[in-house]
Amino acid sequence: MIATTQYRPAGTLSASTALAPYQGQMNARLAAHLLRRAGFGGSPADVARVAAMSPGAAVDSLVHYPKDTGLSGRPDDLGDDYDGLQQKVTELQRMGSDPAELKDARAALGRSRRKTTASMQRWWLERMVRTPAPLQEKMTLFWHGHFTSSMVKGITPREMMNQNWLYRSNALGNVREIAAAITEDPAMLKFLDNARSFKEHPNENFARELMELFTLGIGNYTEQDVREAARALTGNTVRGAAQGGGYTFALRRHDFGTKTVLGTSGQLDGKDVVEIIFRQPAASRFIAAKLLNFFVYNDPEPELIEGVAALLRKYDFQTSPVMSQLLRSNVFFSDRAYRALVKSPVEFVVGAHQLYGLSEVTDESLAALGRMGQALFDPPSVKGWDGGAAWLNSQTVLARENFADYLVTAQTTAQADSWLVGSVPAGADAASTTLVGTILLGDASPASKAHLSSYLNGEGTSALGVLSVENYQERMRGAAYLTMAMPAYQLS
Amino acid sequence: MKRSRFLLGSVAGLTVAANTDSLFARALAAAPLPGLPGDDRVLVVINLQGGNDGLNTVVPHGMEQYYRYRPTLAVPRGDVLQIDRNVGLNPALRSLKGMFDAGKVAIVQGAGYPQPDHSHFRSTEIWQTAAPDRIERTGWLGRYLDSAGMPENNLFNAVALAQVMPEAFVARKVDVPAIGAFRGYGLSSDKQASTKAAFASLVRDERVPFDSPYLGRVAEIEDHAQRGSQELPSLIGGYKTTAAYPATGIGRSLALAAQMIGSRLGTRVIYVQHGSFDTHAAQRGTQDRLLQELSDGLKAFYDDLAEHGNDTRTLTMTFSEFGRRVAENASRGTDHGEASPMFVVGGGVRGGLFGAHPSLDELDNGDVVYTVDFRSVYATILEKWMGRPSREILAGEFSLVPLLA
User: Fold this and answer.
1) Nearest residue on chain B to A485, judged by CA atoms?
2) Cβ pair B217:A201 closer than 8 A
3) Domain residues for B291?
4) Phi, psi (rounded to 5 degrees) for B187
5) Is A196 close to B178, i.e. CB distance below 8 A?
6) Position A83 confidence tier, pLDDT thresholds 50, 70, 90
7) CATH code, domain carrying B289
């Protein structure tokens, strides 16, 4: 990877007007920009619909999303056999029984976990593809990458799904309340080992990440604060499966002594720690920077971070009014923000499905997402996904292109009425214009458009002449794939 | 353990074009490798990601306090693979102990740095950039590659066998590919000549009607990915081995590393990821399994290298972002700590123990205190193995550890 000082866009921020409402005209490019950031890109019809609205009305329609989406709330397979298999493993371990039997039981549990994880991933991706509330799913993805957990350390599919719904129900909710809720979230308590923390030897994992990665950032707390917060969080644990699971506060594990966290002393517990954290000015700046990096552009200026942090403080950490103002702002609709982010693999995959009107996500697409580096419910670390330049290496870029190839050749074949192959194009130039217009919103050089025309006409190959009724389906698919390989399509 | 044939098998499955005048072939023929005392030395860096518990790796079985601090986690004295009266290896490291006894392994005890950070991310960054005292954008291996004048048209000057590019490779001039798994390293559309040619041209579209800070990077990486994946199979396809690699992630990575080293692509540094060692709970099972995977993988790797006469030109170094707390926690695990040992294997290594084992009497807030600055190990490898002055790369002078002749 080549080091640049940063990936902040060129040009200068107009700090005084950055967060004021954008008063300019809406058009298809800006509509697609808004749909990519506040959702996953949408269909060509979605882009046309939003392009006809004013910027303010378009943002309102995304922020005030329908409560009832009409979508299924649970995946088909939520590992109903999982608890039983888990209990069997525990039982066999306790009895110290036959190693072969234990090995089989563990293998069965592993199979169940993989099958269920795939089912959950498919369910969520299809929900992202189909939802009439794209910003709700986009914020849920944001929280999943921020307050992250993966399905390890005995976290059950049900616990993981409950965490996912915690984020979805609070998609545009209050950051402090979400942070407080995760101190009692079974998946999180297991993921960061607080479920096994005792007052005699507190486990510091959760306390540290709560401050370092979730709320304050490094440099805004001390090692002593971590140790003290870990004491305050003792007792927040998860009941065993035999007792029905779920969050519980274990009195005998909790340290009821006096602690001092970030300068505040008292008989603190987990909720108190969250309250104290969110009184630090660093908390609003940390969350603001995270939102800007995810929704606007990378390495945002300190003045811009402070502007959004001030909004978070003004609205007492409610994200709905903050996101509403951010998405309709001058900086959001500026040239500096346009195509300034690298598409995440989830954006790449969900967006491509919406582009071609595909509503089902196949096993192949799920596997491709893993190869691109973003398997849902399986982030690489407690830091979530780094994003930006980290999405781009040889391996992940090849996986993107191979997925695009698969999607336009294998997946859209069944759809004779798709815009891609629904009618015979009037000629290669017109077809090239349609492809670049629909897939890239025109974001290609004239030379590339001409090159695409030549490809559609079969130039440079021995085969079969210009674009025609006989060959247009295959050529359009090939050209659509090539358009998706062009630089603009990698960027959001 | 069955013989591993997966790599060679997957190479045979690809269409291998005879491409004798490729950029790579020309680069290899034309470019003498720069600035090296030997001719074609390779450094393999293995990251034990997550914070490997040093005290259960190189076990201080002669220190009573170890058994007091670790009532359930300590390796019983009788199980330790003894090196001397004080320390020995975790029994999961049996293969590595064999290599140690043959004089092929240097163990640097107590590697760390001043004012240690307990965050995975910051401490990883410190080891990757070799800059504990400042924020540094480039990695120490990236700065080495930049300074060594690598041939610009070789796409395989260095390789990360990882899904995510390690910060150690961030450079100003040299771009390093990441190859997570060899099987997925190729473009399906390259099978069609017309698509292949159009792809090569269209992905370099930089005269677009918008500006983006990522535009150049996107074009570059797509170009490198296509060319690299076209070339690699034919470059390494002729390599055969009888070495018995374990069927593990690190086994597969090291098998590919040996294949690349043996195919003489001009690759100087290979980075391998192994983990996670973040054993806050139920440590013994997890850490022992990972150590055994490391140890058995290294054994197969050096068997393979030796079979092809590459063992003496390949040096391997392990590192982890930190060790773990001396006292175990109530979850039969350990929390983030400070210093931990490094293994330096193969090449011209002088086998044995280096640096003092950290004291368990004088702890820093419950953590062992480092006895060797890890930058001394980096400096030793840069100067004695890679033949580069270390001062500029490491932004300072560090005393060398006498583990290389």
Assistant:
1) B203
2) no
3) 6-207+216-394
4) -100, 125
5) no
6) confident
7) 3.40.720
